Amino acid sequence: MEKYGNAASEEALPRELLLGQSEKEIEYDRAGRIIRGQFINVAYFKEAALPKSKYKEDVHINNHTTVWGSWWKDHQWGYKCCKQTICNSYCTGSAGIEAAKAATELLKTNMAHKEATDDKPVLHEEKQLATWGTEVPYDLVLDKRLLAKALKKVTAEDMEAYRMKKIHHDDPMKDFRH
């Protein structure tokens, strides 16, 4: 008794020490940190250490007074202090909130004005014009007077130079370069 003491007379030992195990499940990650469960401090059985988050908490960046995700609107997270939905943006405070409200009101006013003056654009009859290097459409409208005037300005040498430079799409040697 003097050497080992009397276990029956003292307080009962915790179950973890008696059996060397407990029914509490603890899950660890590869680095040995607790992911799930409760850490039991062997020296002080009554104290339980809470697992710490790997993320920094309550860190305010770019002049914000709240954290990202403290505000939610229209399926978007944001900062509650300035109601911005752009992460890592600079806090504009109440002035930014007022500016956003004014911009929203201006947008609504402009849209209402546009709906009120909903004039359909005047449709002009467009002529089908052929451009150089394209197929000539079957319903091409040409002004015969302007065509005759343009042909008078073009010489035979101009036409021959055009024919020499023109790419013939059916020519098998058209992609061959010197």
Folded structure, characterized:
The protein has 178 residues and is an alpha+beta fold. Among the domains are: 54 residues, no CATH class; 46 residues, no CATH class. Helices cover 28% and strands 8% of the residues. It contains 4 helices and 6 strands, in the order H-E-E-E-E-E-E-H-H-H. The strands form 3 sheets. The chain has a two-stranded antiparallel ribbon with strand order 1-2. Strand 3 and strand 4 form a beta hairpin. The longest helix is centred in the middle third of the chain and has 24 residues. About 3% of the residues have low confidence. Associated with the spliceosome. Belongs to the SLU7 family. One of its GO terms (cellular component) is spliceosomal complex. Keywords: mRNA processing, mRNA splicing, Nucleus, Spliceosome. One of its GO terms (molecular function) is pre-mRNA 3'-splice site binding.
